[in-house]
Give the backbone structure.
Amino acid sequence: MDISRAGDGGSPRGLTVLETRNLSRRVGPRLLVQEINIQVSAGEILAVVGPSGAGKSSFLRLLNRLDEPTAGTVLLKSTDYHSIVPRELRRRVGMVMQTAFLFPGTVAANISFGPRQRREAMASARITALLERVGLSGFADRDVGHLSGGEAQRVAVARTLANDPEVLLLDEPTSALDESSVRGVEELVQGVVRERRVACVIVTHNREQAARLADRTMVLKAGRMVRIGATGEVLHDA
């Protein structure tokens, strides 16, 4: 790796919410993620780009221990995430996948799922407010089987936000959507990050999307970070 081009991964924006230290994952002889060191601040969006098979999704899954690192670790607000109970970690580090995996039933039941798992009742007024925020006013009683792809992805975002995460992980969240839905979800993500001051990491194959959304961009190749910096500079030079 060209260290001078990769940089140290530090964020210039202030309070560090998420930090990786030599984060790595090996499966058999294959090193999927190799010694990645980054910091992501409150209110910042970091895009992760690179060729197919570069380790983008593997890296993202390490950030909330959906997969376990074989070396290195992740700090959440300076606390090693191995000391955080996995369910609590995944509440604080929420993930929205490429396809919205919603549970059968109503939109409201999906949104309140996380609090229910913690035996917390979610007030209908809060569900209503979340739906308004994601542009789905009046959808609380709608069956998820009747949603469009864009609507389902918005519900997935609302369900994640119901857990009050400090970090939002997005794995190709718009790749299956039409162009109008893509822009709607992008605007939603930007608004949520700005309003809630969460740290956001988005994996995307679309460099134009990275340019629209991200403050900084990290380029992965063969599991290694080969460049990180201001999005305009990184994408211009890549």
Q: What stands out?
A: Confidence is low (pLDDT under 50) at residues 1-5. The beta strands are 16-27, 30-41, 45-49, 71-76, 79-80, 93-96, 167-171, 199-203, 216-221, 224-230. The CA atoms of residues 156 and 195 lie 18 Å apart.
